[in-house]
User: What shape does this take?
Amino acid sequence: MDQHTRLTSRYPLVVFDWDGTLMDSEARIVQSMHAGIRDAGMPERPDQAIRGIIGLGLCEAVRSLFPEASEAEILQVCEAYRTHYFANRTPSPLFPGVREMLEQLRSAGHWLAVATGKSRRGLDEALEQTGLGPLFEVTRTADETESKPHPRMLEEIRAELGLPSEAGLMVGDSRYDILMAHAAGMDALAVGWGVQAPDVLLEHHPAGLVHEIREIPHWLATTAQQAFEESE
Assistant: This one.
């Protein structure tokens, strides 16, 4: 194994959350949820409550908002949400610097993946609109496996790539990302520009916290260098 490979081998696999981490989609999600709740005739929920469930699979998120609701009511909100979300044809923007950051990590030798609470339809739409699809080796969505914080998405990603859990890093903006990573035996890097405040994220003990997208490659390189020096 040459030095370059060893420097990137602390976390050969970097798995990204999507909403709130790579894409600035909070407004679209919150607006669609409000509209879906109204259409289903359910009580309104404040923006803060809706932001707090971003990252979960859709129906898991609705159950969290309405824990006393029947399954029929939950499904009604979910269907109404989907109708409004996909009727909005205005693409959500990537956070500035995301494309360059991902390309930098690929050039450094990392495998990249996505583990998201979005549906497969929603993620595929976003990948097509942004052109980021070719940068990722593997993607998983909540509707084709288990929702966060269950570890199955991460377990399936690393199994597909033939990597042990300690070879992966989960990067995300919510406690669900950190909890999922820990349940899968992986470290997590929290990002401070998404839907949950940094102090909330730090309560769940991520391996690190970054406040700007351009810090991610530096954090990975620094962590890899430390691991390399410790192995000497």
User: Anything to note?
Assistant: The chain has two domains: 3-25+93-231, 26-87. The chain has eleven helices and six strands. Residues 26-87 form a domain with the DNA polymerase; domain 1 fold (CATH 1.10.150).
